[in-house]
Design a protein that fits this description.
Blueprint lengths: L11 H4 L5 H4 L11 E6 L10 E4 L13 E6 L2 E11 L13 E4 L6 H13 L4 H8 L5 H5 L34 H9 L5 E5 L8 H13 L3 E5 L3 H15 L5 E3 L5 H12 L5 E4 L11 E7 L16 H12 L2 E6 L4 H8 L4 E3 L3 H7 L9 H6 L10 H10 L35 H12 L10 H7 L54 H9 L18 E2 L11 H8 L14 E2 L2
Parallel strand pairs: 6-11, 6-12, 7-9, 7-10, 8-9, 10-11
Antiparallel strand pairs: 1-2, 1-4, 3-4, 3-5, 13-14
Helix pairs in contact: 3-4, 3-10, 6-7, 7-8
Length: 581
């Protein structure tokens, strides 16, 4: 009986050609379990932002665990990478490249940090390797090879005193807030409260309250991460943590520690030796096990924004981490930012605010200057640098302590003062009509040749105003001869004077630095005159003139006169000009 065609078929192994010794020679033997490793390679290219499958040799079966640093061959080069996970098989149909070596058996990338890094990269449109570069510090072989502190001696200062922490402070810093005690109770019970905290100003500060929140979290059997703007805040929080938590129960992470010490402290957190971390923005990725609280102080500080790609913000990263792990969140500061207010408005977080009576007691009183009632009492406050209400506040504040004066920018107002008595030079008479006509003629004929105005002509322009003089010498007074007790000639006020066209024997004319023509023209055209402060350079031969906020004149020649060279007779002086002797 002839067999059928189906019965004549042989197994595939029987017809498959045997592999030659050339193909099997030197081939690595796969690991007995989960021989495929998924590795994220250190590549900045966005289209390579995904894990790649590699073969785990049998010799690396014990050391190639998820989270270790590895070296792989990628595009013909040896590159660094992190082993994310091991799976039984790969979707790749071709031959897999084996791992070159395991850099260190330390599992530096935990699954929680790996998932957080992926979420941050997706949120900020970055790559996973860029975020991992921020999350995992560079390896320090000496610090990594040091033995772990398992059972320190009884007389060691680094002994963990977690079983006998210091007593809780009384009264608590959270007693001033109506919902403060419930927030601490939720942390002790293992819940995940999310709050935006408006801290009260005062001598107690914010670090003690944050330390109490961390202690409540540790009492509940979970860990905490606190992020602050700079090293000064880290030192302040570190001292409070040591006082409330006890020695050895927390670590402080800053860039000033150096690579070895920073990596040593980071390993203590990774290995579970400590469960509380305080540091700058890099601490937001601290691998704390069983995270129960993430806190950030002063989230409006620009130091919380990372300077490297993909430029994550510590507040956003901690918010993602709290959402993914089910931990509590505390956003604190003396002022609430717009982002924190949005979290409260959406209901995702709850506010922690003191009562209004407590805020009025501790917070300073703020009164804006420039109100209509104050301006009605003091008309000069419109042009004054410090109005009368500010002077009263300064005087009252100095009776009880120091006073801080904050101004929009630093600087001074240059002015002209007497060489002998340092009194500011001001013209005390109203402007004459000929002076205004003189300025109008000079403006229309700006391209004509100019001649210095003589003291006689300056006096003629001020006809009808006998006894005209600048009021610059205090009780001693100035005669028609000039601005000092010894008098001034036509050349001005000595070495620090104002030029040949200045305060001559006829007083102030339209060509002078403080003449009625210049001063009144500034007020007539709407330019604010403002206060004049006498500023004299010690030992110098030149003085500055009052600042006139005038628009730049048009024309090339007028631009040269306004911004280059000294002042010219018969023209309004430019802002900040210096007059030679």
């Amino acid at each position: 009986m002839t067999p059928s065609s189906d019965d004549a078929l042989l197994p595939l192994e029987a017809v498959r050609p045997a592999q030659s010794s050339k193909d099997t020679k030197g081939a690595p033997v796969p690991a007995p379990e989960n021989p495929v490793a998924r590795v994220v390679v250190d590549s900045p290219l966005p289209h390579l932002d995904r894990p790649f499958d590699y073969l785990v040799p049998g010799t690396m079966h014990e050391t190639a665990e998820p989270g270790v640093r590895v070296r792989v061959r990628f595009a013909g080069k040896l590159v660094d990478g992190f082993l994310l996970e091991r799976v039984p098989e790969s979707e790749h149909e071709g031959r897999l490249t084996p791992l070159e070596r395991v850099v260190s058996p330390e599992r530096v990338l935990t699954p929680e940090i790996a998932g957080l890094a992926r979420a941050v990269a997706d949120r900020y449109a970055g790559t996973l390797t860029d975020v991992l570069r921020l999350a995992v510090p560079p390896r320090h072989a000496k610090a990594e090879s040091e033995p772990r502190k398992t059972d320190p001696p009884a007389d060691s200062q680094d002994q963990d005193t977690s079983e006998s922490p210091p007593p809780a402070p009384s009264p608590s810093a959270w007693d001033a807030y109506p919902t403060g005690s419930s927030f601490l109770d939720a942390l002790r019970d293992g819940r995940a409260p999310r709050a935006v905290w408006s801290a009260l100003p005062g001598a107690r500060g914010w670090a003690g309250a944050v330390a109490e929140a961390v202690r409540a979290t540790l009492d509940g059997g979970r860990g905490a991460v606190v992020v602050v703007p700079d090293g000064k805040d880290v030192a302040l929080a570190d001292a409070e943590f040591g006082r409330l938590l006890g020695p050895g129960r927390h670590v402080a992470l800053t860039a000033d520690l150096g690579p070895a010490e920073r990596y040593r402290r980071w390993l203590r957190v990774l290995r579970g030796e400590v469960r509380a971390v305080v540091g700058t923005r890099a601490a937001m990725f601290a691998p704390v096990a069983e995270l129960g609280l993430v806190a950030i102080w002063d989230d409006g500080d620009d130091l919380h924004a990372e300077r490297l790609a993909p430029y994550p913000h510590a507040r956003e990263v901690l918010g993602l981490r709290a959402h993914r792990t089910g931990a509590g969140l505390l956003i604190g500061g003396y002022a609430r930012t717009a982002e924190a207010t949005q979290l409260v408005a959406s209901g995702w977080a709850r506010p922690i605010v003191a009562a209004r009576t407590t805020i009025r007691t501790l917070a300073p009183r703020v009164r804006p200057a420039g109100e209509d009632a104050e301006l009605a009492k003091d008309q000069a406050a419109r042009q004054a640098r410090l109005p009368s209400i500010a002077w009263r506040a300064l005087r009252l504040g100095l009776e009880s302590g120091p006073v801080l004066v904050q101004v929009p920018r630093r600087g001074y107002l240059p002015a002209l003062a007497c060489r002998h008595c340092r009194a500011p030079a001001r013209c005390v008479l109203p402007p004459p009509a000929p002076a205004l006509a003189f300025l109008g003629r000079r403006t229309r004929t700006r391209n004509r040749a100019r001649k210095p105005v003589s003291p006689g002509r300056a006096g003629a322009d001020r006809a009808g105003y006998p006894g005209a003089r600048p009021s610059c010498c205090g009780p001693a007074g100035c005669g028609p001869a000039g601005c000092g007790p010894a008098g001034c000639g036509p050349a001005g006020c000595g070495p620090a004077g104002c030029g040949p066209a200045g305060c001559g024997p006829a007083g102030c004319g339209p060509a002078g630095w403080a003449g009625a023509a210049v001063s009144w023209a500034a007020g007539a055209q709407g330019w604010p005159r403002g206060p004049v402060l006498p500023v004299v350079r010690p030992g110098g031969r030149r003085l500055a003139v009052p600042v006139l906020r005038q628009p730049a004149p048009a024309g090339r020649r007028h631009r040269r006169q306004a911004y280059g060279g000294g002042a010219r007779p018969g023209l309004p002086l430019r802002a900040g000009a210096d007059l030679g002797t």
